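Schema walk-through. Below, the input block comes first and the output block second. Nothing else is stored per chain. Lengths vary across the set, and this one has 268 residues.
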Amino acid sequence: MRTSSIENFERVVSSRRLNSYRRYFKTKTMDEAIGLYLWNGEVSSCFASHLAYFEIVLRNSVHRAMSMFCTRGRSTSAHWYDQIWKTLSPTTQRRIQEVRQRRSKVTLDADEMVASLSLGFWPAVLRNIDHAHANLILPAVFPFHPLSAPVPQWRDTKVRRRALAFVFELHAFRNRLAHHEPLWKFGAMRDASGTPDATNRLPSRSPAESIDRLRGLLALIEDAAGFIDRAMRDDLGQPPGANAWTSCSPSVASSGIVAASMCPIRRF
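--- output ---
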């Protein structure tokens, strides 16, 4: 991005928004705050691309596993959601109906329907899987998850809820991206066990804590992708032997914050 006027940038983005950066990062000038605002945009863009890869891989894996389960192994692409319709929540049913209404002029095959559903659909489907079928379906969705091998261990409800917490966390983070929220502003993270009012991480209170949480999310995306396909990270076009998500690392580091705050906005 390139701009020649700090005053104009402050006016169109709003002082209130930029002042939140000044307070949190304790910057001395508005120029530094704007640099950090642009740094947040750079980090957001990086996370968005990686989450998009994960979303596609997740939906394809769930679709394939559910199709195989509902057709008893006869098809990897079926309208499985129609076969389990009565077990789906009203919200999940509504999402399917909305897609069909939006594209009512064409007959959607199963792959087209799946491609039209948002990321929020898939955590709901995974949460809905009955414990009696969990050891058959979830190892097919996440073949490299610790609960999938050597003996599937997905049946226990509390264990399953904790194990799938990463999907819900990534979905919530993606929603923050979609609403252009400051990624460094982390709230408390609730315990995945479902215990009322339990938290396992407090809100971030410093740039160092924010960096720690962002780096943790990078590792979570990496782990999540690896649960489905171990080679997926290497298939994203990274140099041989490199970590698939290292393209974000320079920005998601304390040095990235310092560089952003010291770089005048007209250089971006």
